Amino acid sequence: MVFLSDFSVLSGMAYYRFEVSADEIFYLNIAYRGGTSRFYNIFKTGIGESRLVNFTWGFGTRIPVGKVFTTSIDLTNGLVMTTSGNLKYHGLLTKLIPTIDFHLARHLTLFAGPSVNLYWYYTGNSDKPEGIAPYTIYDEIFTTGPHGIQIWVGGVIGLKI
């Protein structure tokens, strides 16, 4: 059984999907993917704990693995802000996200995978958060300016429609 989404992977036809997902920081993400299977743009927004929001742009590609599986590799970068009072900028979050996509039906795909996260943030705010990582592999606050960097490995799970 070959799904239409698999055919678009093989032929490079137009690829458009809406996505609902969750990760370790933003518990509800809504995204739009548009382009071709070989190269698509990603526009995503999400909400998380402590009134965090993100506005993200990225790009990705899909690689066929079988009749009902594909692999997606995405690279995104976006603003992290808080909505306490008015919108306040906190930092930039870059994510590398390889996922395994399981095609449940013609236009329904379950996906999951790890993410490598790099968060560059401004430490001059009095509002929380400064760093947002649940744990870090690397965590440094620079003395030459009010900035810090956190790196961690997380995960994502979601549905593409």
Outline of the structure:
The chain is mainly beta and 161 residues long. It is built from 1 helix and 9 strands; from the N terminus they run αβββββββββ.
The figure for the number of domains is 1
Number of strands: 9
**Helical residues, percent:** under 10%
- Segments where pLDDT lies below 50 for 5+ residues? 1-11
Q: Major beta sheet, specifics?
A: 8 strands, antiparallel, barrel
Q: Which CATH class is shown?
A: Mainly Beta
Strand content: over 45%
- Summed up, the helix count is 1
CATH architecture verdict: Beta Barrel
Q: What is the CATH T-level topology? A: Porin
Shape type = elongated
Gap from first CA to last CA: 19 Å
Strand order of the largest sheet: 1-2-3-4-5-6-7-9
* Radius of gyration (Å): 17 Å
Q: Mean of residue pLDDT?
A: 87
Query: Which structural category fits the helices and strands?
Result: mainly beta
Describe the secondary structure blueprint for this structure:
Layout: H1 4-11, E1 14-23, E2 26-36, E3 40-48, E4 52-64, E5 69-82, E6 88-105, E7 108-122, E8 138-141, E9 147-160
Question: What do these coordinates show?
Answer:
- The protein is mainly beta.
- The protein has one domain: Porin (Beta Barrel), CATH 2.40.160.
- It has one helix and nine strands.
- The chain has one helix at about 5-10; strands at about 15-25, 25-35, 40-50, 50-65, 70-80, 90-105, 110-120, 140, 145-160.
- It has an eight-stranded antiparallel barrel.
- A hairpin with a 4-residue loop joins strand 4 and strand 5.
- It is elongated, with a radius of gyration of 17 Å.
